[in-house]
Amino acid sequence: MAGHSKWAQIKRKKAANDLKRGKVISKYLRAIAAAARAGGSADPAANVQLRNVIEAARNDDVPGDNIERLLKRLQGGDEEGSHYEEVIYEGYAPGGVAVLVYALTDNRNRTASEVRHVFSKHGGSLGAVGAVAWQFERRGYIWLDTDSPEAQDAAIEAGALDLQESEGGLEIYTDPHEVYAVANALKAKGFHPQDTEITMIPQNTVTLGEEEAQKVLRMVEALEDLDDTQNVYTNLNLDNVRVEA
Q1: What is the pTM of this model?
Q2: For the chain, is the Cβ count within 10 Å smaller at the N or the C terminus?
Q3: 95: closest CA among 238, 242, 230?
């Protein structure tokens, strides 16, 4: 689990400029449409998966107007998202680092070709289904910028499964279905989560030298830049890795 809060900080840095921001918003809107289809309803109250995606989008500062306009279209019978399906790619980056890529695509062949190209270009190797997924566990994740006893007590009371002090803050792990409920309970007690998401937590991490670690980071960034990519997860230990904004 070491270094996960640093990953969250990296994601925020990479999404800072307008071009990146536009791609982040577009990916969330695609995910919302796909979740509405997969859950059989465009009503967040009746579709847990959709509700979680919307919460994640709002947490990542996707404009509420964009979300509401899309929901109205979907509730009115718009079939946006009906042709997208989730595909998961598994493989290894340089240094034996495990990589999971979650994508939403309307063309499996195109997406597979693009992902394979990035793996190959950056010295990685794309594997078969099940190659690395077993090394990760799906969890809700919250990061607070305080690790005070009061914050820890509040997190436990709200339903946290595990707590880790990290970089002057507190990493909170929850059941993936409960992460936003826990975050809201913390807000109600006066705490301010800096990051809330449903993620894949590596059971063990790989530590590399600076040069090899930078190769992995460049590969992850290239994968994230693909239009169809939703999320990229690795088991690289970032504790002592230099990260540029």
Answers
A1: 0.82
A2: C
A3: 238
